C-alpha cells in the first residue's frame, strides 16, 4: 500500500488518533528503515471468555499485523491484581492471582482465532512490573501528580462526592504507562474508555528517553440489546467460543439495535470495505435487501471468522430451519446422523448444543434438555437408535438419526 492508504486502513473505524501526523511520520520511518512498529494492546484477564466487543480491538491488531508490524498481546496479570478503575464509582475488588492466571490461559487460547500465532508476541506485565524496586516505583510515581490524576472523570466524580479513592488505584494508569516504556511501544490501542490510561503512557515516555507513543481508540461495541455496551454481565453479548449455531442465532434473533448499530457491526466486525458496506446500505434503503437478510449475512461472516465457512453455512441452514419449524414445518429441520448408544451428554457436545461435557451435564441436571418433547434429567441417559428431536433450552433444536 501507499503511505496514505496504509494510514487510512489502520485508522479505519477509530475514534481517537493521537496524533495522526505522528502516525504518518512513524509509518514513513518504518517503511524507509524496514523496522516494523511495535503495537501494544493490553487486556486484563478479568473474565474467562472473550466476546465480540473485545474483538474490535483484536481485529485492529490484526490490521497492523497484516501491514507487517509487530503486535504485542499484553496480558495484564499484574495490573489485574490492582483493578482498572475505568468506569467505576468505587474501588474495584482485585482479582486473586489464581483467577487472573486461569483467565489469562483462556485469553491466550482464544485470541489466536483472529491473530496469527506465528506473528504475535504474547507477554505478561508481571514480568517487569513484578520486579520493580521501591526506588523504581517512586521514580514512576514522580512522573504524574494528583491534579493530573483528578482530570480522570471517575476520580474527579468520586473526589467531588466524597467517595474514597484508594492510593493503589493511581498506580493502575501509571503501571499501564510503564508497560509502554518497557515495550518501547510506538502505538497503543484501546477502547474509547481507556483514553486517559493511554495518554498516561504517552505522557511519561519522554521522561524515560522515549518518543511518546501514538494512541488509537476504537468504539465500544453496542450489545445485542442496542443500548448498552456489549457485556457478559448484561447478557447482550456473543462469545467467540460459543458454538456456531448459537453465535448466528443470537445475531439473527436477539439483535435489537438500530440500523446505525447494525452498520457499526459491519464496520467493526467484518473485513468488508467502506465501499462494500455503502453498497449494502444503498440496497437496504432501496428495499432490494431486508434487515433479516443483512443480519444473516452479518452472522454468517462473523461465524466464519471463528469457526470456518462450512460451519457458518451449516449454522445458517439450522437457524433458518428452526424458524420454519416454529411456523409449523418441523420436518424442515436438517437431519443429522449420529452413532446410536452414545451418552446424551456426549451427543449434546457433538451437536454443538453444549460447549463441554460439564456444560452438557449442567444443562441435563437443570432440566434444560428435552428429547422428543420430554425432559431428560438423567446424566447417564443414552440416545438409542431412531430419529429424535433434541432441544436445549427454548431455541436450540436439532433432529438426529441415531444408528
Automatic annotation (TrEMBL):
<protein>
    <recommendedName>
        <fullName>Tyrosine--tRNA ligase</fullName>
        <ecNumber>6.1.1.1</ecNumber>
    </recommendedName>
</protein>
<keyword id="KW-0436">Ligase</keyword>
<keyword id="KW-0067">ATP-binding</keyword>
<keyword id="KW-0963">Cytoplasm</keyword>
<dbReference type="InterPro" id="IPR002305">
    <property type="entry name" value="aa-tRNA-synth_Ic"/>
</dbReference>
<dbReference type="Pfam" id="PF01479">
    <property type="entry name" value="S4"/>
</dbReference>
<keyword id="KW-0547">Nucleotide-binding</keyword>
<dbReference type="GO" id="GO:0005829">
    <property type="term" value="C:cytosol"/>
</dbReference>
<keyword id="KW-0648">Protein biosynthesis</keyword>
<dbReference type="GO" id="GO:0005524">
    <property type="term" value="F:ATP binding"/>
</dbReference>
<dbReference type="InterPro" id="IPR002307">
    <property type="entry name" value="Tyr-tRNA-ligase"/>
</dbReference>
<feature type="domain" description="RNA-binding S4">
    <location>
        <begin position="345"/>
        <end position="385"/>
    </location>
</feature>
<dbReference type="InterPro" id="IPR001412">
    <property type="entry name" value="aa-tRNA-synth_I_CS"/>
</dbReference>
<feature type="binding site">
    <location>
        <position position="232"/>
    </location>
    <ligand>
        <name>ATP</name>
    </ligand>
</feature>
<dbReference type="InterPro" id="IPR024088">
    <property type="entry name" value="Tyr-tRNA-ligase_bac-type"/>
</dbReference>
<dbReference type="InterPro" id="IPR014729">
    <property type="entry name" value="Rossmann-like_a/b/a_fold"/>
</dbReference>
<keyword id="KW-0030">Aminoacyl-tRNA synthetase</keyword>
<dbReference type="InterPro" id="IPR002942">
    <property type="entry name" value="S4_RNA-bd"/>
</dbReference>
<feature type="short sequence motif" description="'HIGH' region">
    <location>
        <begin position="45"/>
        <end position="54"/>
    </location>
</feature>
<dbReference type="GO" id="GO:0006437">
    <property type="term" value="P:tyrosyl-tRNA aminoacylation"/>
</dbReference>
<dbReference type="GO" id="GO:0003723">
    <property type="term" value="F:RNA binding"/>
</dbReference>
<comment type="subunit">
    <text>Homodimer.</text>
</comment>
<dbReference type="InterPro" id="IPR024108">
    <property type="entry name" value="Tyr-tRNA-ligase_bac_2"/>
</dbReference>
<feature type="short sequence motif" description="'KMSKS' region">
    <location>
        <begin position="229"/>
        <end position="233"/>
    </location>
</feature>
<dbReference type="Pfam" id="PF00579">
    <property type="entry name" value="tRNA-synt_1b"/>
</dbReference>
<dbReference type="InterPro" id="IPR036986">
    <property type="entry name" value="S4_RNA-bd_sf"/>
</dbReference>
<dbReference type="GO" id="GO:0004831">
    <property type="term" value="F:tyrosine-tRNA ligase activity"/>
</dbReference>
<keyword id="KW-0694">RNA-binding</keyword>
<comment type="similarity">
    <text>Belongs to the class-I aminoacyl-tRNA synthetase family. TyrS type 2 subfamily.</text>
</comment>
<comment type="function">
    <text>Catalyzes the attachment of tyrosine to tRNA(Tyr) in a two-step reaction: tyrosine is first activated by ATP to form Tyr-AMP and then transferred to the acceptor end of tRNA(Tyr).</text>
</comment>
Amino acid at each position: 500500500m501507499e503511505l496514505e492508504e496504509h494510514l487510512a486502513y489502520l485508522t479505519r473505524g477509530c475514534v481517537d488518533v493521537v496524533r495522526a501526523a505522528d502516525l504518518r511520520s512513524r509509518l514513513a520511518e518504518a517503511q524507509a528503515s524496514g523496522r516494523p512498529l511495535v503495537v501494544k494492546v493490553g487486556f486484563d484477564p478479568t473474565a474467562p471468555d472473550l466476546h465480540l466487543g473485545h474483538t474490535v480491538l483484536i481485529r485492529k491488531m490484526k490490521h497492523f499485523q497484516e501491514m507487517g508490524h509487530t503486535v504485542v498481546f499484553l496480558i495484564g496479570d499484574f495490573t489485574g491484581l490492582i483493578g482498572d478503575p475505568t468506569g467505576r464509582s468505587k474501588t474495584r475488588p482485585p482479582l486473586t492471582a489464581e483467577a487472573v492466571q486461569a483467565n489469562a490461559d483462556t485469553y491466550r487460547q482464544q485470541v489466536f482465532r483472529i491473530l496469527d500465532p506465528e506473528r504475535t508476541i504474547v507477554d505478561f506485565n508481571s514480568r517487569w512490573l513484578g520486579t520493580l524496586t521501591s526506588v523504581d516505583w517512586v521514580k514512576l510515581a514522580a512522573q504524574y501528580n494528583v491534579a493530573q490524576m483528578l482530570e480522570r472523570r471517575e476520580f474527579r466524580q468520586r473526589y467531588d462526592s466524597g467517595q474514597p479513592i484508594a492510593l493503589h488505584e493511581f498506580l493502575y494508569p501509571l503501571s499501564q504507562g510503564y508497560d509502554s516504556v518497557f515495550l518501547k511501544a510506538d502505538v497503543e490501542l484501546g477502547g474509547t474508555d481507556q483514553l486517559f490510561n493511554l495518554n498516561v503512557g504517552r505522557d511519561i515516555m519522554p521522561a524515560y528517553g522515549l518518543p511518546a507513543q501514538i494512541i488509537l481508540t476504537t468504539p465500544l461495541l453496542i450489545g445485542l440489546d442496542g443500548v448498552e455496551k456489549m457485556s457478559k454481565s448484561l447478557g447482550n453479548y456473543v462469545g467467540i467460543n460459543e458454538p456456531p449455531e448459537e453465535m448466528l442465532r443470537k445475531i439473527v434473533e436477539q439483535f435489537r439495535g438500530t440500523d446505525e448499530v447494525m452498520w457499526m457491526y459491519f464496520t467493526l466486525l467484518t473485513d468488508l470495505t467502506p465501499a462494500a458496506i455503502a453498497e449494502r446500505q444503498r440496497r437496504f434503503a432501496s428495499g432490494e435487501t431486508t434487515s433479516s437478510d443483512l443480519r444473516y449475512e452479518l452472522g454468517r461472516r462473523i461465524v466464519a471468522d471463528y469457526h470456518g465457512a462450512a460451519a457458518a453455512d451449516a449454522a445458517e441452514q439450522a437457524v433458518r430451519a428452526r424458524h420454519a419449524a416454529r411456523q409449523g414445518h418441523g420436518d424442515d429441520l436438517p437431519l443429522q446422523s449420529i452413532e446410536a448408544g452414545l451418552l446424551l451428554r456426549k451427543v449434546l457436545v457433538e451437536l454443538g448444543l453444549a460447549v463441554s461435557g460439564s456444560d452438557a451435564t449442567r444443562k441435563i441436571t437443570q432440566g434444560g434438555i428435552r428429547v422428543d418433547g420430554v425432559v431428560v434429567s438423567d446424566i447417564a441417559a443414552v440416545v438409542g437408535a431412531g430419529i429424535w428431536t433434541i432441544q436445549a433450552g427454548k431455541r436450540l433444536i436439532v433432529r438426529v438419526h441415531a444408528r
